[in-house]
Amino acid sequence: xxxxxxxxxxxxxxxxxxxxxxxxxxxxxxxxxxxxxxxxxxxxxxxxxxxxxxxxxxxxxxxxxxxxxxxxxxxxxxxxxxxxxxxxxxxxxxxxxxxxxxxxxxxxxxxxxxxxxxxxxxxxxxxxxxxxxxxxxxxxxxxxxxxxxxxxxxxxxxxxxxxxxxxxxxxxxxxxxxxxxxxxxxxxxxxxxxxxxxxxxxxxxxxxxxxxxxxxxxxxxxxxxxxxxxxxxxxxxxxxxxxxxxxxxxxxxxxxxxxxxxxxxxxxxxxxxxxxxxxxxxxxxxxxxxxxxxxxxxxxxxxxxxxxxxxxxxxxxxxxxxxxxxxxx
Length: 329
Hints:
It is a single chain. With 329 residues, the chain is an alpha+beta fold. Among the domains are: 8-67, btk motif of tyrosine-protein kinase itk (Irregular), CATH 4.10.1130; 112-128 and 219-301, Immunoglobulin-like (Sandwich); 146-209, btk motif of tyrosine-protein kinase itk (Irregular). The protein is 12% helix and 28% strand. The chain is built from five helices and 22 strands. The protein has helices at 55-59, 82-88, 96-99, 123-141, 196-200, and strands spanning 8-9, 18-19, 29-31, 36-39, 42-45, 51-52, 65-67, 112-113, 116-118, 170-172, 177-180, 183-186, 192-193, 206-208, 220-221, 226-230, 234-239, 250-254, 257-264, 269-276, 281-290, 295-301. The longest helix has 19 residues, at 123-141. The termini are far apart. Residues 69-104 are annotated as: Disordered. Pfam families: CHORD (PF04968), CS (PF04969).
């Protein structure tokens, strides 16, 4: 029998087991040779066809290849240098009136979460919805639990080992994973990293009970109607989504770009939209309010000028679809 003292940690992706170098062979490790891919709410491995919208389910996808265990961390995918990115970035056409103003901030500047609050119209509806969701979860949890069943709370790596597992304290993340512009973090935490393995190892920021059964509802993409109007100092955007879930939602921006990720309803549907803004905003002076039937985003203008549109329409031209009349519009 191998000694635990001689065991090493395997860093092959999706493995994470301890192994004895003396008994390590070419079929010992089941892992993913590819890299994690996150696109349009889907999560998958580049080496596999299976994809999911649930982060915990993604982490539990078994490896698609076998090889030796390795105690060496896989290298991070190389990123193009800033100089190369700037050289390859195509120029952005700006409206004539904006060319006369100050230089427009870079659209790739870091994004910041906009401060948010819960409106009075949402509080009773949110309380009722969360209770209904909790009752549905309790019904599911009444079923038999198999040994080694993983906890479905986000960020928890524990498995069910017996009745005593039910009285353990679960350390998990109450928010959602965010992958944006190379950064990886939880919406409930301020710690950010570019390394996927470091992201997975972040200890949860919330305590509670383990969840051995998956929620009956699953997150799915949804379309929401939204409109906007403006004052001299602000741009107000209303996203119509009944019973938004603030704990699972966030709105972030930089001076010229807005990213909305809004979860709503018992089904935890997700509305996601990114907008290149017509004008420049002051992110720190902006606010988000979650209301009973909508989310209201108030963007503070950096300059007291009238916006012709919410979006910057004059983006990179698509020469395949252009006609001679496009420049005269």
